């Protein structure tokens, strides 16, 4: 059964989620979502409360779940490719190395990123960034205004309400990141 994952997009620089060349991905931050989401799950990034309640910065349906090393091989050159596979562990898990640069270069950030294990690709997706619309109450009620990620309250009915609301826009990019670098 599909679920809706949601969280607060506290800082939106264009890396997580990353929208480049018409593809939306999540391959850094949000380790619970990236390790637990499955194909056909939905993800919603809400704006912080200080920007108004129920504002949706982005939403999308997971269309592909890739190991981070496979993602970096396939999508080399995207700005969110900051890890590369340098080997495999005895259990088959990837050994990844931060590829340098100023993004997520602290030990804490790297540890958080690597706990996520996967890169997620989304089709369809809607990205508004700083132009986030206010969702109707049945979607805004999903807002998650504290640290972490959750699927609580997710049901086929909430997914249908989300899809109905999103049908008001064509999928794709409708704005720019709030904290664009």
Give a short summary of the structure.
The protein is an alpha+beta fold and 181 residues long. It is 20% helix and 29% strand.
Task: Kindly describe this structure.
- By secondary structure, the chain is an alpha+beta fold.
- It has a domain at 4-65 and 116-173.
- The protein has 5 helices and 9 strands.
- It has helices at residues 31-36, 68-74, 107-115, 137-140, 156-166; strands at residues 4-8, 18-20, 23-26, 42-46, 56-67, 83-88, 94-98, 118-127, 172-173.
- The strands form 2 sheets. Strands 1, 2, 3, 4, 5, 8 and 9 form a 7-stranded mixed beta sheet that branches. A two-stranded antiparallel sheet has the order 6-7.
- Strand 6 and strand 7 (94-98) form a beta hairpin.
- The termini are far apart.
- The relative contact order is 0.26.
- The mean pLDDT is 91.
Keywords:
9 strands, 181 residues, 20% helix, two-stranded antiparallel sheet, single chain, seven-stranded mixed beta sheet, alpha+beta
Low-confidence stretches: none
Tell me the distance between the termini. 37 Å
Helix content: 10-25%
Order of helices and strands: EEEHEEHEEHEHHE
Number of helices: 5
Largest sheet: 7 strands, mixed
User: In angstroms, what is the radius of gyration?
Assistant: 16 Å
Got a strand count? 9
Mean pLDDT across all amino acids: 91
* Class by SSE composition: alpha+beta
**What coarse outline follows from CA principal-axis ratios?**
globular
Query: Hey, roughly how much beta strand do the residues contain?
Result: 25-35%
What topology does this entry show?
Layout: E1 4-8, E2 18-20, E3 23-26, H1 31-36, E4 42-46, E5 56-67, H2 68-74, E6 83-88, E7 94-98, H3 107-115, E8 118-127, H4 137-140, H5 156-166, E9 172-173
Parallel strand pairs: 1-4, 8-9
Antiparallel strand pairs: 2-3, 3-8, 4-5, 5-8, 6-7
């Amino acid at each position: 059964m599909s679920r809706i994952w949601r969280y607060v997009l506290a800082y939106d620089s264009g890396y997580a989620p990353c929208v480049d060349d018409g593809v939306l991905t999540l391959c850094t931050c949000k380790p619970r979502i990236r390790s637990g989401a499955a194909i056909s799950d939905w993800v919603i990034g809400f704006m912080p409360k200080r920007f108004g309640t129920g504002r949706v910065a982005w939403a999308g349906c997971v269309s592909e779940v890739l190991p981070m090393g496979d993602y970096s091989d396939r999508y080399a050159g995207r700005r969110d490719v900051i890890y590369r596979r340098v080997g495999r562990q005895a259990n088959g898990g990837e050994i990844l190395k931060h590829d340098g640069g100023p993004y997520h270069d602290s030990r804490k950030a790297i540890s958080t990123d690597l706990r996520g294990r996967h890169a997620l690709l989304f089709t369809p997706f809607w990205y508004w960034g700083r132009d986030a619309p206010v969702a109707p109450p049945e979607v805004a009620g999903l807002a998650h205004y504290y640290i972490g990620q959750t699927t609580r309250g997710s049901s086929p009915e909430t997914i249908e309400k989300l899809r109905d609301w999103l049908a008001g826009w064509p999928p794709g990019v409708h704005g720019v990141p709030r904290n664009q670098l």
